[in-house]
Amino acid sequence: MARYLITLDSGVHADNVAAQAAITASGAAVIKSYAFSLTFEIESTVEQLAAISGVTESIEKNTPTTVSVQELNQNHLTNLAASSVIGEAPLGYTPQNAGAGGHVYLVDTGLYAEHEQFVGRTINNLYSNFGSDFSDNAGHGTAVASVIVGNTQGVSKDATLHNVKLFDTGTGNITLGEIIDALDEVLAHHLGSNPSQVKVVCLPWVTPQNNFLDNKITEMNSSNLIVVAAAGNDGVDVNTVSPAGVNVVLTVGSYNQDYAVTSFTNVPWTDPTTPYNNNYGAALDIFALGVNVSCAAKTATDAYGVISGTSISAGLVAGAAVQWATKLPGKTSSELKDIILQEGHLKGASAITFDADSAISTANVNRSVLTVSLANQVTLGNLPSGRILNAQLGQTTTKDLELNLVDGTDFGILNFAPLPQWASLDLSTGILTVNTETIDPSLAPGVYLFGIKGTVSDKTVVEEYSIGLYNTSVSELEGATQYYYDEDTNSYDEVVSYQVAPFSITKF
User: Fold this and answer.
1) pTM score
2) What DSSP string describes 351-378?
């Protein structure tokens, strides 16, 4: 007899009751029913497992795997000076939104809750793989948590951080069953506490790629959770590790203080000669600062250290994702991901370079960097960059872009990012009209980008939006190719590369 984790086919079994009946009919015993769909821990023989109808995947619960994060260098720093703009004095970070009412699950090495960065913060000890021990012996969880909700270092300090202690060391062995148990606790808590509210899950670690694990992370992401994963620090193909290689999650790479993407960042491929057309939704989605970032250390209540690696980059992205989730409560997790990536695309600058030792084929990198709004930042309107409309082929529809027509002037469409031929925008009202009744059907499915500009409070502001065009089902747009309309050639150019810019949250 052995313990297995199994998932059953919903097309074969109507619900958990029917699935458990099929399990027991084989002679196996149900040990645990998970929050994951039709997923169970069972005890059975190999023959009993084979006799269960409709099993789509299974693993032995005690299958060993390795996990790795990165080490913390102990230096006493009191702010994110390491994140300052080169050559400038540290700047204060004053966000428009500090994540009040938001939630982030940090699955890591625990938390040194007594640190001054967490005094007065809302911390919930949700689950520990070590009984009642939620403390942090490795220091990694404390470091990442401090850039998410820390008093002076946190991107979303007013959010609730749910402490999920899965590991006790930075690098070591664990079973896949232990990982699934921890993630199931996260999903169950989310589903049991306002599941319509988008929440964020930060997974700042990697383990060798596993399909069972990846499928569970995909399910979490589809349950109105934004899953943020570290790309990993070995300079290898990101698709060889979990959870970073899961395409639907926000996988984060690192750049240094000179804005060079680090050679340690795992990437979607390691051979520069390999053709790889990368768009939004690729295995590596976004970049953030990941070298010498100041953070809380576990050695004393006022101790600080510096950390380098994609884990700390993932923490910064997770914190800002909470901001977006609370700023735009009506958006789904997938819509918010699209907004985060598209904001980073347009607002990026060409300052980012690639490490000379990197094996990345830079022409095909998904170049986006996380951006957040500062307190004094003006906006073009109420809609952020990102997907604003999905239109079915053969239909006509309209959308109000909610432009700031009271304070804004000189609105216009960007010459290098014009509207597609089948769309028009009334700049006096902000009403976008999309008429796809007579267009070439080969244009669907596809996502079409355009940009607008305007002047607000004497500042020029630019936003980039996109329109999804589909044939019969909006699901066709999952992973669809993105295009710009080229007025000179009267054709649509595929988007295969973006600009990368410094992450605005790191200006301290």
Assistant:
1) 0.77
2) T-EE-TT----GGG----B----BTT--
